[in-house]
Amino acid sequence: MTELQEIFSYRKHWAKRFGIAPELPVSRQEMDNLGWDSCDIILVTGDAYVDHPSFGMAVIGRVLEAQGFRVGIISQPDWQNKTDFMSLGKPNLFFGVTAGNMDSMINRYTSDRKLRSNDAYTADGAGGKRPDRSVLVYSQRCREAYSDVPLVVGGIEASLRRIAHYDYWSDKVRRSVVLDSKADILVYGNGERQIVEIAHRLAAGEDVKDLTEIRGTAFVTNAIPEKYHVMDSRDVDTPGKIEKIENPYQEKETEQGQSRGQPDCESKSREASESVGADEGAVTKVVQFQRLRDIKRDRSHVVLQLPDYEAVREDKVLYAHASRVLHLETNPHNARALFQKHGERIVWLNPPPLPLSTKELDAVFELNYTRRPHSNYQQAKIPAYEMIRFSINIMRGCFGGCTFCSITEHEGRIIQNRSEDSIIREIEKIRDTVPGFTGVISDLGGPTANMYRLACKDEKIEASCRKPSCVFPDICSNLNTSHKSLIQLYKRARTVPGVKKVLVASGLRYDLAVRSHEYVKELVTHHVGGYLKIAPEHTEDSVLSKMMKPGMGAYDAFKKLFDKFSKEAGKEQYLIPYFIAAHPGTTDEDMMNLAIWLKANDLRADQVQNFLPSPMATASAMYYSGKNPLRKVTEDSEDVPIARGATQRRLHKAFLRYHDANNWPLLREALKKMGRSDLIGNGKRHLIPSWQPKDTGGAQSAQKNMRKNSVSPGTKVFKTQHTGLPRNPKPKKARPQKRDS
User: Fold this and answer.
1) Is residue 21 domain-shared with residue 158, that is, in the same domain?
2) Measured CA distances, 322 to 231, 317, 407, 622 (Å)
3) Distance separating alpha carbons of residues 225 and 361, to the nearest angstrom
4) 84 is in which domain, residue-wise?
5) How far apart (Å, rounded) are the C-alpha atoms in residues 54 and 101?
6) In this predicted model, what pLDDT tens digit does every residue of 115-140 receive, in sequence order?
7) What is the per-residue pLDDT across 187-222, written as a single tens digit (0 to 9) for each?
């Protein structure tokens, strides 16, 4: 791999003389105003252009601008033809294409595959401003506009589709997006380090086809470089017997009798050992073992061969195996290169990018962002921007490894921290420059609120570790869990002149928080705005183990501390727990037990979400294959129960909303089939009543039914998607209501 170079240490491109643009241009007129005759790089995005460090395209654009390049933005173009893609002219170096801050399919469709009517990343929340599979469509239009311009794809959509992946919306395994987009190179993960090197090397005259050793990139090739030793993924993690007739890893013969299969150095060794006698074969095996051991030690010249696209498309066990191996190769300090054949072509993945240093991350966040939408949007509201305009990101990455989440796959599990001084400077910038600031920082956090400056106690251990999570099944003994740096940051932030309140709204890892009572006290006393969102996700251990989430004991311990310190502070505050319905590993009984727990704790979910299999997530591999890739995958390994059909998914969602009268008929039928008719009745010990109101279906009637369903006053109602304070329904006199016979 190429030697690590700080991203701001490159010699700046000659176009630096044009200086910093007030806004990155989105039109020819703006380019003319800046004195540009052309753009060096044009970035195409499915999001509205917001010049803020929470929007990936703005970050990449400003980072490239800081290198001296002229960067233009094509935001939410009309994808029906190439016209919009030619609006800024031909870029001198490359097109950079992304779907935006979200995968376009997740952005456009619900977990029930229904089209969403709005888009939080679009002006006024309008829907329909981006196509399905935006990376593919935008890439095609870029090629139509200027076929000879190098094409680089990146962002979350490309990152999570970099190998053959299960696609929930088509319900099949699709090819790597780098093939289908016909991109020259794919950038995965946080892309600053990769995109800077790509830009400078292209500016120096290198051919994009020669950029083959940049970490955090993928590309298509026809051959394996000679310097690499090829190891079959079975040498890392044996999947067991897959095919009874044909081994999908074995080289296949063409009509001419020549091999055309996957390069397999070990298959040749096996053939050689079979050709000698028993004694010679034993010696050969010893030599082979020693050679394999030496190869494994030299990871920089080893490439792991994943099962072919055609194999994982046809064999679900192989798909789960490939997913498991991919996730084992995510630590940038020990990950090996991977490749996967798609027909006769090879998709090559270099190891993940090395994390940015604190100095680099500070510089990225302190570039010349306007921190607002482009002026072309005038008074239009962009919901995603409105949500984050007074928030601050203090770190990147997550070592939680939750199987349903894409943060670890995209940002990595090594935490990248900003300095305290840099964060304070951003608070002051918001105070001084952002219109509408009232003195409240809406969120001081990141992917996880309380992983700031948490890391392995030993760099050597961190460099060799291959665990997918540092906190499951329990918190690793090598993990530093001290919250002192975060407590100090909170205290300093809330004393900045002009700041009235600093809230923490990011996801909190409560199993870490309970390790520091001082942290919980600081958080609860000063940084909770009436409610705090946390995500136990489920109550049943069998399900939590598939999620890689802690048991409810950690939740109970945190709730006790939360209630204690809230009381000491003289504040009435609430925990807002999130739960997922229909996650892989969940049975009907599991959802019933969760509903019973909710009822026992006087909690009601106002809006809930079914599990949505995002590309490349471990839980998605479970959903598709029915196997558990958290362990070695074989045909005889653990079968994971899957709520796949619409009826069962609707039932699981109904259990979370047990209080909604619209769900009672479905729940009654299910409980009877489960032999739990004892939960149907009109007492407090029952989950749902035995009667059904005639006016079931309206919002007002649902509220009435909530009160009527034998629930004591003070029951907390919480939302699992939209924010809002818990409501305490006031008790009303019960009105006689006719019941159906």
Assistant:
1) yes
2) 14, 9, 19, 12
3) 34
4) 14-213
5) 9
6) 999 999 999 999 999 999 999 999 99
7) 999 999 999 999 999 999 999 999 999 999 999 999
